[in-house]
Specification:
There is one protein chain. The protein is α/β, with parallel strands linked by helices. It is built from 11 helices and 13 strands. It has a 9-stranded mixed sheet with strand order 5-4-1-8-9-10-11-12-13, with helices on both faces. A hairpin with a 5-residue loop joins strand 11 and strand 12. Helix 9 runs antiparallel to helix 10. It is globular. The two termini are 25 Å apart.
């Protein structure tokens, strides 16, 4: 069985639901408020664990009530916590508003996530070296992301990099990763090309390849995903489902992709599996509560 390491953020999601987003300066009536475990790193670790993967998390929590709850939650799911440290600050917070169409706006308060640095990664390097796959995102300081990627590269651990939230990324990091998984906004931030259609996705894929990326898997929501690898451009269709909440769909995609590759699937088949996992996650509320089991994904992917 393949082993997976996720290095990244752990957040508590404070979620408000409303029929529509407010305009600037406007107050609207909310429909509900909920608290969920989240963070892009933790989301990917939870999604992997729910699929049955051997998963360890590297990250930081605060000294508040959320931290102990998070650790217990991870233990119940089977996510290994030897890479998690608590800091004398708050746990990371994500304030999320979801509208009646299932779309969302998110504000991140880093908290303990902001205290991850290269020295911390060096202290936990054995967890990366022992893994077959390392999953990375951008909700922790760049120095930590770079150090994790360097460690994985030296160890022969495959790197799947989700360049979210969108920002400038060092050229070195792009050369280190094996697979990058941007959505439309992130692809534009990395390449200057807005992929509004297939030709745009192909152009963005070529631009990423020119920057040293080995394979680009570009997420396109309900349209599925587009692959650019070794000069070949491929579309993998998505699945039609009734969407309730798109929060963490991209994180579920990355976990599904990593899991499928760990099971020996070639890239196109792994992307189809990832599309199915992401689609199922949008049919339920909550970043992690909606993440599917391996049986659910296989049933949809094989349909």
């Amino acid at each position: 069985m393949s082993r997976f390491c996720v290095a990244g953020s752990l957040n508590i999601d404070l979620v408000t639901r409303t029929k529509r987003f407010p305009k600037k300066g406007e107050t609207v009536q909310g429909e509900s408020f909920s608290t969920f475990t989240g963070g892009k790193g933790a989301n990917q670790a939870v999604a992997l664990s729910k699929l049955g993967a051997d998963t360890v998390m590297i990250g930081k929590l605060g000294n508040d009530i959320y931290a102990a709850q998070y650790m217990e939650y991870f233990r119940k799911l089977g996510v290994k916590t030897s890479g998690i440290m608590r800091e004398e600050t708050s746990t990371g917070i994500a304030v999320i508003t979801v509208d009646g169409e299932g779309e969302n706006f998110i504000i991140i308060i880093p908290g303990a996530n902001g205290r991850m640095d290269s020295e911390y990664i060096k202290d936990k390097k054995e967890l990366i070296e022992q893994a077959d796959f390392l999953l990375l995102q951008l909700e922790v300081p760049m120095e930590a992301v770079l150090e994790a990627a360097r460690t994985a590269k030296n160890a022969g651990t495959k790197i799947i990099f989700d360049p979210a939230p969108a920002m400038d990324v060092p050229a070195e990091l792009l050369r280190l990763v094996d697979i990058i998984t941007p959505n439309e906004t992130e692809a534009e931030a990395l390449t200057g090309i807005r992929p509004d259609d297939e030709s745009g996705f192909e152009a963005a894929g070529k631009a990423l390849a020119e920057k040293g990326v080995k394979a680009a898997v570009m997420k396109a929501g309900a349209k599925g995903a587009y692959i650019f690898e070794n000069g070949v451009f491929t579309h993998v269709a998505g699945f039609k489902v009734k969407t309730a909440d798109t929060t963490a769909a991209g994180d579920t995609f990355n976990a599904g992709l990593a899991y499928a590759l760990g099971e020996g699937l070639e890239l196109k088949s792994a992307v189809r599996f990832a599309n199915a996992a992401a689609a199922i996650s949008t049919t339920k509320h909550g970043a992690q509560d909606g993440m599917p089991s391996i049986e659910e994904v296989r049933n949809l992917a094989d349909a």
